[in-house]
Design goal:
Number of strands: 2
Helix content: 55-70%
Largest sheet: 2 strands, antiparallel
Number of domains: 2
Structural class: mainly alpha
Number of helices: 10
Radius of gyration: 23 Å
Length: 258
């Protein structure tokens, strides 16, 4: 299988890796909520949050280049949604441009909102990368279950992670078979071939899911995932949670007092 796991560096030994998954889940959720609720004009608070997540990434011993590459993957999706804000937001004009038969205008307030969306999205992605890269997915799902997540969501995430790499290998085999048959021709022919591949992949995935479900039922599966490893909440988790929450709140207190 030519792929990289989501929790590729979850086997490293660091203080962040040894924390209970429930502690990291709650801390990540608190960090994301704090970043999203931060007013757009308080750039000092964003700098503080970046320093916090940078310190945690250093403590986790994750490769910086790995974190940077994974965090930049989200930017095309964020820009695809937010790139039109500067053109529709009212305010002082920053520039006007002629694009074919249309004249579009960019405002300073729209650019400010765009920058705010990009910064918040990047900080949240860094927090999620820290969570997913320092926690094994099995422990993460077990922590979600103990925190009250519906069982059907746990099963969907578990099977998604388990079989996504099987589907990737299936796509690679289909691509190799396509290329070995001298895949070429005009663009319409290529689109037709790719469409057939997508349909074939869907049918094979559906049939594989039916076979797996039948095999699980024949082995007595009752909808519950049982593991031998039990999660343990230690004093270090409590100390980390309290200190982390205090660090998240302290910029607001300093801003309010100032």
């Amino acid at each position: 299988m030519k792929h990289s796991f989501i929790d590729e560096y979850s086997d490293l030994d660091s203080f962040i890796h040894r924390l209970d998954p429930r502690t990291k889940l709650i801390a990540s959720l608190a960090f994301i909520v704090a970043v999203v609720l931060t007013p757009a004009n308080n750039w000092r608070i964003f700098v503080c949050y970046f320093c916090v997540i940078a310190v945690l990434l250093i403590l986790s011993r994750l490769p910086p280049l790995y974190v940077l590459k994974r965090s930049l993957v989200i930017f095309p999706f964020v820009l695809l949604i937010a790139v039109f804000i500067p053109f529709f937001k009212e305010g002082e004009l920053a520039g006007s441009y002629n694009i074919w038969m249309w004249q579009v205008s960019v405002t300073y307030s729209g650019l400010f909102i765009l920058a705010n969306v990009v910064v918040k999205a990047w900080l949240c992605i860094l927090g999620l990368i820290l969570l997913s890269s320092t926690t094994k997915l099995a422990d993460l799902l077990k922590g979600l279950k103990q925190l009250g997540t519906p069982q059907v969501m746990i099963l969907i995430l578990s099977f998604m992670y388990r079989y996504i790499f099987v589907l990737v290998d299936e796509v690679m085999r289909m691509q190799q078979a396509r290329d070995s048959r001298n895949f070429g021709g005009n663009r319409l022919h290529q689109l037709k071939t790719i469409g057939n591949m997508v349909g074939t992949l869907f049918i094979r995935s559906y049939e594989r899911g039916e076979r797996i479900y039948a095999a699980m039922l024949s082995r007595g599966f009752d909808g519950q995932v049982r593991t031998l490893h039990n999660l343990s909440f230690r004093p270090a988790d409590a100390y980390f949670g309290v200190i982390f929450c205090m660090v998240l709140v302290s910029p607001y207190i300093i801003w309010w007092l100032g």
